[in-house]
Specification:
Elements (H helix, E strand, L loop, with lengths): L3 H14 L21 H8 L7 E4 L2 E7 L11 E7 L1 H7 L8 E3 L6 E7 L3 E8 L2 E8 L3 H17 L2
Antiparallel strand pairs: 1-2, 2-3, 3-7, 4-5, 5-6, 6-7
Helix pairs in contact: 2-4
């Protein structure tokens, strides 16, 4: 299977789920997913040094990725944060055959892990009128979930 296909599908799907702009509190730049985590936070969470976050699509600052120097590898350690609308968040909770979804307590106002074949598990979080997804790669599933939850809590502290 071509590794580019799942990544491209993810980027295209999340791009259409996103609002034209989002409002984030406490000095976080509106609609800029890269402003939600620092390079140091992501490096600490992944246990490896990463380059500064950058938009996965240059014209779309609502999807940001962090990876070690040299760029992301298909099975390598990485983080992607995507800003979502609350409507997209609610839609993401709709049951879909073959896509396990499990609620997460104690994170934001509402949160759910969603596992998609070929893409792993992502954590979708809603707080007030804002929502986002954190997706970690390069670890076993439970480790990814633990890291996603820890990073989501750091993002929520900025909201």
């Amino acid at each position: 299977m071509n590794v580019i296909q799942p990544v491209a599908a993810f980027v295209i799907t999340t791009t259409f789920l996103l609002p034209p702009s989002s409002r984030w509190g406490r000095g976080v730049q509106s609609g800029d997913a890269c402003a939600l985590l620092t390079q140091a936070q992501v490096s600490a969470a992944l246990g490896v040094s990463v380059d500064p976050g950058k938009p996965l699509i240059a014209t779309n600052p609502r999807v940001c990725g962090w990876a070690p120097p040299g760029g992301p590898r298909p099975d390598g350690k990485k983080v992607v944060v995507t800003l979502m609308t609350t409507k997209s968040f609610e839609t993401s909770k709709t049951p879909v055959q073959g896509i396990p979804k499990s609620p997460v307590s104690g994170v934001g106002d509402d949160a759910v892990y969603i596992t998609t074949a070929g893409m792993g598990t992502g954590l979708n979080v809603k707080k007030g009128a804002s929502a986002f997804q954190v997706r970690v790669g390069g670890f076993k599933e439970q480790q990814e979930k633990d890291i996603e939850k820890a990073l989501a809590e750091q993002i929520l502290a900025k909201m």
